[in-house]
Write a structure and sequence with these properties.
heterodimer; A: alpha/beta; 8 strands; globular; B: 139 residues; mainly beta; Rieske Iron-sulfur Protein; 6-stranded antiparallel sheet; 4% helix
Chain lengths: 363, 139
């Protein structure tokens, strides 16, 4: 089913990756020249996680329509049918996987400016994600500081499988910058694939990579909590995108249990880590791996909160048919939590930008 | 129900910083000596029933912020040998879950042998000598 009311907040919606030539106007002259001279502007910068031709990457009926502007297509297929008041979008760009950290930073900036001008400017329902690379936290913080004034950006986005676990102290400048500016830290499924997707090397099949994402999210969550990120940044909110949530109850149980035994190792954790998880982490709905409304409600009961789930279509990824973004049978009260109350309470910037963003808030 | 008092050990049996497993009224009890003060806890961890007597007597690790470690109240906690749960020897409370996970803490006292010979306590398992002091546990 789709949200039975207008005003839903879609917390994970993807913008199509533009041809690199479309980013050239947003690059400084040096990098424009570099890309053209080295023919890099002919590269697609597609991430391995979502090869453009893969059936998962885009639903067949959501494939780019020749003759229709991408923005019009997004409005027609993702914003209008689901009655969305706000959609938090991201543009997952292969720039984050570049080993040249200077070029990566320049391209991330270009992507962010492209999103601001080509998508956020003409469509007031869209909110943006600041794309950064985790490999150079100085560059990442500089990019966050450069864009933080634009209130339409509501989160900073990193792949869940990066060069290091996100709780590591080298990453803290990024977390501090997010907290300082009221930006969520979004972790998106997938990674740069510089390291194997399992702790025992590379798997053979896509199904293994796909399932391994929940383990990657578990690792990231345990890292962020154990390292004490939330002692340092108590207001930081982490949004897990395309993470699923069916694995949360056992993670919470195990985390709390192990903490009791080896708490001395991380004495800055002064309350059950599951409580920190429930307070600081949020999870988008699609792809939903818990198949029925009854099981979703039971899973939330095990998690111990109905405030963690955020509605998402994950447009244009193929997870459901038609407009069936919500599993049938979920109570309207829960839908209201998932599709409206939770998102507004979860992103520090979202509630404040409900009214159309003014030119003042942009500059 | 009125409480019974049991003589469980000579004070010299439990040196400061150590523990001793004793039995009082059929119950296994972990007796601790913290700098001359005696404390008695039920000798079963509420988690899986590990013997707290066999646990390491430790301090409490705390931190004002990540990476700033400090050990306080050295010798006032016992760590279950099985899974590491920590209990405050003075109260029996688990630090991680003080409301739900606690071991029974019993009142202790030290009484001279001459008092015991005169009464009022029953020295069930001890041959009491008037020259020594005894640990008494109230159950």
């Amino acid at each position: 089913m789709k949200p039975p009311f207008k005003g839903a907040v879609d917390c994970d919606l993807h913008l199509p990756s533009p041809p690199t030539t479309a980013l050239l106007p947003y690059l400084p002259a040096y990098w424009r020249d570099q890309l053209e001279t080295r023919f890099i502007h002919k590269m697609g910068f597609q991430l391995t996680s979502y090869p453009p031709g893969s059936p998962l990457t885009c639903r067949e009926d959501w494939r780019p329509n020749k003759g229709e502007r991408p923005l019009d297509q997004l409005r027609r297929q993702a914003l209008d049918p689901f009655g969305v008041e706000i959609a938090v979008c991201s543009l997952l760009h292969g720039a984050i996987a570049l080993f040249n950290e200077d070029m990566a930073a320049a391209l991330c900036s270009a992507v962010n400016d492209f999103v601001a001008h080509e998508w956020l400017d003409p469509e007031p329902r869209l909110r943006g994600s600041i794309l950064i690379t985790g490999q150079n936290p100085d560059h990442a913080v500089a990019e966050i500081e450069r864009l933080a004034h634009d209130r339409r950006f509501v989160q900073v986005i990193l792949p869940v499988m990066g060069d290091m676990l996100p709780g590591k102290r080298q990453m803290w400048p990024i977390h501090r910058a997010c907290e300082k500016h009221g930006l969520g830290l979004a972790l998106h499924a997938g990674g740069t694939y510089r390291f194997p997707t399992t702790a025992s090397g590379w798997p053979s099949f896509q199904v293994e990579d796909y399932v391994a994402n929940s383990a990657a999210f578990e690792n990231a969550i345990v890292s962020l909590i154990s390292e004490g990120v939330f002692s340092e940044c108590p207001d930081l909110r982490v949004i897990c995108l395309e993470s699923g949530f069916g694995w949360l109850p056992t993670l919470i149980w195990r985390l709390n249990k192990e903490w009791r035994g080896i708490r001395q190792e991380v004495p800055w954790i002064t309350r059950p880590p599951g409580d920190i998880l429930r307070e600081r982490f949020r999870f988008t709905l699609q792809p939903v791996e818990v198949p029925t409304a009854a099981l979703i409600e039971r899973t939330l009961e095990h998690i111990g909160s109905d405030e963690l789930l955020l509605f998402s279509t994950d447009y244009p990824h193929a997870h459901f048919e038609g407009e069936e973004a919500l599993p049938d049978g979920i109570s309207e009260a829960l839908i209201r939590k998932i599709a409206r109350d939770n998102p507004l309470a979860s992103y520090p910037r979202l509630a404040r930008t409900l009214q159309p963003v003014t030119a003042e808030q942009r500059s | 129900m009125s409480k019974s008092r049991f003589v469980v050990a000579r004070t010299s049996d439990v040196a400061p910083g150590t523990s001793l497993r004793v039995n009082a009224g059929g119950r296994d009890i972990a007796l601790f000596n913290i700098a001359g003060a005696f404390f008695a806890l039920g000798d079963r961890c509420p988690h899986e029933s590990g013997s707290l007597c066999a646990g390491k007597i430790v301090g409490f690790a705390e931190a004002d912020e990540p990476g700033k470690y400090r050990l306080v109240r050295d010798g006032e906690f016992v760590r279950c040998p099985w899974h590491g749960w920590e209990f405050d020897i003075r109260t029996g409370k688990s630090w991680c879950d003080p409301e739900k996970s606690r071991v029974r803490a019993y009142q202790t006292g030290v009484t001279s042998g001459s008092d015991l010979v005169e009464g009022p306590y029953v020295a069930e398992t001890f041959k009491v000598s008037v020259e020594e002091n005894y640990v008494v546990v109230e159950i």
